[in-house]
Amino acid sequence: MNAPPLKTVDAFHRGRFHLVQPKGRGHRAGMDAMLLASMVDGTGPLKVADLGAGAGAAGLAVAARLADVTVSLFEISPEMADYARQTLALAENAGLAARVCVHEADVTLKGAHRNAAGLTDDTFDHVIMNPPFNAAADRRTPDALKGVAHAMAEGLFENWIRTAGAILKPGGQMSLIARPESIGAIIAACGNRFGGLELTPVHAREGEDAFRILASAVKGSRARLALRAPLVMHGPDGHAFLPRVDDLNNGRASYPRSTAARPANL
């Protein structure tokens, strides 16, 4: 008899929610997911879709910080979707579970198939995504579960951002985290679907090249692209997060759009 896959239960936001994750294989959530979650901001009831949700880290981080938000997790991998279900079943997440649901779905579906999978048109106030960003030329991992989470397919941003544009309400916000080399593909995919694209370079330390970008845009907006001030994670010495980043990582603060370009309903 095969042994069940090893897993861990990990605390986030200083214990405000917990995540069931595969141990020694697959994708394990960390800072990327927490930064992505921080981009959701607003008051009152909001519907959030987390595309490529994995075990649910970013979506649960949103739900833990914003009490009136409901979150739909969309994940193509049956195994990772099951980890998300296990996550919601944890006693530690009892206060959040009623506001979060899991959909085992391919976020690149189109038309009626997309709607049938729960990715319904004009439904969500905010869509977040942390898509696979390893190029095909990158070293392939022998870990099939990790490969699903990390390997970038041809036309990925076009397909994922097309879905975001379909399922968002007019004026809704899309937010994502990616590598800086994906900026061109993100801009092209936004096309006429989204405007007011805001890009924030993320740096480990001052003087170092950016290793991530945060991007947000508004459905139907005609506002111009804006390049925001860099977000620097660490000081010159040590590996501790700077106070602002530590607040984002632990759900004590949000990273909203700049005031001038922020949609009125978010």
Task: Please supply descriptive tags for the structure shown above.
266 residues, alpha/beta, Rossmann fold, nine-stranded mixed sheet, 11 strands, globular
The strand count comes to: 11
Shape: globular
Structural class call reads: alpha/beta
Measured by DSSP, the beta-strand proportion falls in: 25-35%
CATH superfamily placement: Vaccinia Virus protein VP39
Quaternary structure state of the chains depicted: single chain
The main pleated sheet reads as: 9 strands, mixed
- Radius of gyration equals 17 Å
Helix content: 25-40%
Here the CATH topology equals Rossmann fold
Provide the succession of SSEs: EEHEHEHEHEHHEHEEEEH
Which CATH-level-2 architecture? 3-Layer(aba) Sandwich
Identify the CATH class. Alpha Beta
Number of helices: 8
Q: Give the N-to-C terminal Cα separation.
A: 51 Å
Number of spatially distinct domains: 1
- Which segments are poorly predicted (pLDDT under 50) over 5 or more consecutive residues? 146-151
Question: What is the arithmetic mean of pLDDT?
Answer: 90
Organism: Martelella mangrovi
InterPro entries: DNA_methylase_N6_adenine_CS (IPR002052), SAM-dependent_MTases_sf (IPR029063), Small_mtfrase_dom (IPR007848), tRNA_Adenine-N(6)_MTase (IPR050210)
Protein name: tRNA1(Val) A37 N6-methylase TrmN6
Pfam family, one: MTS
